[in-house]
Each structure stands twice: as C-alpha cells, then as structure tokens.
Amino acid sequence: MRAEFPRDIMSSENARNKFLRDCETLIKAIHANKKVDEAIRRQSKDGEISSSEPWCELRHYLGRLYSYRMAAEMIVKSTERWPELFVDFTVVSVPSSRHMAKPIPTSELTAADIVRNMIPEEEDPRGYLSQVEVMQKFGLDKLIQDQVRRPSFRPYVHAEVLVHGHLLRRGISHPRNFWHGWKYIGSSKPTCRLCDYYFIAHQDNVQVRKSHKNLYPNWRLPDVFENEGDDAIRRQLQLLENITGNVRNDAKRTLEEKRPLRKRHDSNTHSALPEYLNLSDSSLMSSVSQARMSTSRDEHRELGTIREGSSCSLDPNEASDGSDDEDGGVPVFCK
Q1: pTM (2 decimals)?
Q2: I need a labelling partner for 238 at 20 to 30 A (CA). Which of 5, 54, 137, 187 fits?
Q3: Residue 122, pLDDT score
Q4: Which pLDDT score, from 0 to 100, does residue 320 have?
Q5: Over the chain, what HEC string results?
C-alpha cells in the first residue's frame, strides 16, 4: 500500500477525495500490520535521544489516525450492545461562552510578585523566592510577561464545563437523568488540568475523562449572575477557591522540582475497544465500574470511550506546543 497526501486538500474536489482515500489506505495499513508499533518502539528505545523523538512522534500520529477506525468500531459495537441508544435521539448545540476581557492588565508582573501573592502570610516565602531567582536563567519573568501581553489572552469556558453548566441550568443532575444512571460527560480529548480540578471540586460529582494534566491560561469558570442568588455566588467562590488551592500547590511543586507536570500531546496515542462491550449483561455493570477506576500510567479505560495508553514521548512531562484549541461550542446527544 502507498499513500501520498496532497499538500493543499482544499485546492479542489479531487484533492479532498484523494486525501480521504489516502487516509483510508494508511489506516488499513496500520490495522493490517500489527508489528508497526513494535518496530517503532524498538527504534525509539535503541536510538539516541536526538533520533528517538521522531519515532515517538510518528507512533503518536499513527495512533491518532488509527483512532478513527477504532471510533467507528466503537459505534458499531455500541449499536449492538445498546440499540435503543441510537433511536430517537436529539443533538443539542451548546453555544460557545464569551471570551472575557484580559484578566491581568499589561504590566511588569514577575514570578516573585506571583509568589508573594500566593503564599499565606503565616508561611515563609523565602524558599520559593530563591527558587524563582534560580529559574530566571530560563527567562521565567519574560515568559510570564509575554503571556500577559498576548492579545489572545482572553479566557473562555472549556467544552466539558460548558456542557456541565448547560445540564445544571436545566436541572439535569440526578443519575436518573443520565443513560443507565452514569453521570458522565465525554469529550474528544482527555480533560485539561483546570477542568479536572473543576470536576473534582464540584459538588455535583459528575465523571469526566482522565486528565492529561496540561495547563491552559485561557480557562475560566462559567458565569454566575446576581439573579441566581447568593447561594450560587457562594458556591462559585468556593469552587474558585478550591481550584486556586490546587494551582498554588502545583506552582509550589514546580518550583521545588523544576519540572512541570504535563504531556507532550493533549491526545492519547493508543485506542482500543472497551472489553465490556463484549460482556454479557450480567457482568456489564461490574466491568464498567472497574473500567472507570482503572487509571494506570499506560492504560486507562473510560466509560463510553476507548482504552488509551500514554504517549511514547521521551519526556512525558515535556511541554507541548502550548496551543489551546478547546474553543467553541459543543454538541450534546440527548435521549
């Protein structure tokens, strides 16, 4: 099999059709050749660090492309397991949130300023300030100021939180309102770090995808208005305090370890069908419960999605390209 992708797929109808055919050819090749992953693993393991990275990147992108086939198989298997789920459903489009004004005015904000503001009065900040001073050789203050000055630094509500707010505003919070009583909000990618902290702290106790731990500055909480009452405002402030506490702890740990916690990519490399789609009805619920609790480093099963593994990154905590591409409204499927 051979695939040659056109550079500009929008140049003509033929270019688009050829691109789709070549994608199909490559997906079939990945599926047919089970030793591709093994060969790439061997190359990335045996090579020097400088030469291993391209192999890891290749493995990741082949895995992402192959995930389309696995997603199609997932849908087919689901129609066999739960045919009623695909009858008389409605797709509801949830509009994007508004981008808020830049939260920090253009200024000469420094890492030392941030440390002094985040450390409680009873805690000695000198240890963290000395760590900040050490990290200035990496241009830490400049990185902070560049972020503050970005015109695109206008936070918005991420998709999972947007869907959650949409459900809560309509009184959809009890397990009986969810398919099979599973309070779960799915998404096309693992959850970002701040969304993860949001759902951990929220009293609604809804489940989401395991987080990739990447941190995006353009993140904010949903709006709460005065006409929603004092209780809603207090809950929002408590939620913000809990999330902020986690972020402070992350900042302290990063200063101490000089190593941020994140993945190279915000998507996963591997895809596979969940085992519970092939189980009998009697063992289905037990398997789903186990799948939702399985969170090992290289394997994670999720309700209604796919089993996923970690990336072949040389450094799983290495910074990605820094893009924050979770903008936009989302469709919600309702029965």
Answers
A1: 0.72
A2: 187
A3: 87
A4: 41
A5: CCCCCCCCCCCCHHHHHHHHHHHHHHHHHHHHCCCHHHHHHHHHHHCCHHHHHHHHHHHHHHHHHHHHHHHHHHHHHHHHHCHHHHCCCEEEEECCCCCCCCCCCCCCCCHHHHHHHHCCCCCCCHHHHHHHHHHHHHCHHHHHHHHHHCCCCCCECCHHHHHHHHHHHCCCCCHHHCHHHCCECCCCCCECHHHHHHHHHCCCCCECCCECCCCCCCECCCCCCHHHCHHHHHHHHHHHHHHHHHHHHHHHHHHHHCCCCCCCCCCCCCCECCHHHHCCHHHHHHHHHHHHHCECCCCECCCCCCEECCCCCCCCCCCCCCCCCCCCCEEEEEC
